[in-house]
Automatic annotation (TrEMBL):
One of its GO terms (molecular function) is ribosomal large subunit binding. It comes from the Bacteria. It comes from Blautia obeum. Keywords: Cytoplasm, Protein biosynthesis. Responsible for the release of ribosomes from messenger RNA at the termination of protein biosynthesis. May increase the efficiency of translation by recycling ribosomes from one round of translation to another. Pfam families: RRF. This is Ribosome-recycling factor. NCBIfam families: frr (TIGR00496). Belongs to the RRF family. Residues 19-181 form the Ribosome recycling factor domain. One of its GO terms (cellular component) is cytoplasm.
Length: 183
């Protein structure tokens, strides 16, 4: 593959990976420790990702257990979870914070699917913007003694990449939507 096209493929790959990572933070029916990925806790004055200050386990299908390495962090962890957009109420026994995930209502599942589709649309727009940037860059090549045919080939290659990544995004949206709607 032409290295001029390769850099745009890398950008599209990063967009897809970012989107897929974002999908792991959306809660489906089962407990998934990744829903806590964006949560930070005040640890000696600096916001620190929850995974770096606690052991996170899933002992049951709808429960996440958070065992901080220092019990002084429990209040901070509870506060961080309560102020997040997860909509979960943590409970603790002094050593461990437990999150019991309620069964998702039909309405909540539909809202989550809408959210997934919206995020998928945003990822597709990002991929199309990369295609536009690539095409703009290729058009400038005609001023640098690159034939129009070669520019056309480069644009076709980027279009094929765009189609491939949009299919992957659609597939990821489809898979996550099924996961959310499966009771």
């Amino acid at each position: 593959m032409d290295e001029r096209v390769q850099k745009y493929e890398q950008k599209m790959t990063k967009t897809l990976e970012g989107f897929e990572t974002e999908l792991t933070t959306i809660r489906a029916g089962r407990a998934n420790p990744h829903i806590l990925d964006k949560i930070t806790v005040d640890y000696y004055g600096s916001p620190t990702p929850l995974q770096q200050v606690a052991n996170i386990t899933v002992p049951e299908a709808r429960m996440i257990q958070i065992q901080p390495w220092e019990s002084s962090l429990i209040k901070g962890i509870e506060k961080a979870i309560l102020t997040s957009d997860l909509g979960l109420n943590p409970s603790n026994d002094g050593k461990i914070v437990r999150l019991v995930l309620p069964e998702l209502t039909e309405e909540r599942r539909k809202d989550l699917v809408k959210d997934v589709k919206k995020k998928g649309e945003a990822a597709k727009v990002a991929v199309r913007n990369i295609r536009r940037d690539a095409n703009d860059a290729f058009k400038k090549l005609t001023k640098q003694d690159v034939s129009e045919d070669e520019v056309k080939d480069l644009e076709d290659a980027v279009q094929k990449l765009t189609d491939k990544f949009i299919k992957k995004i659609d597939a990821a949206v489809e898979m996550k939507s099924k996961e959310i709607l499966t009771v």
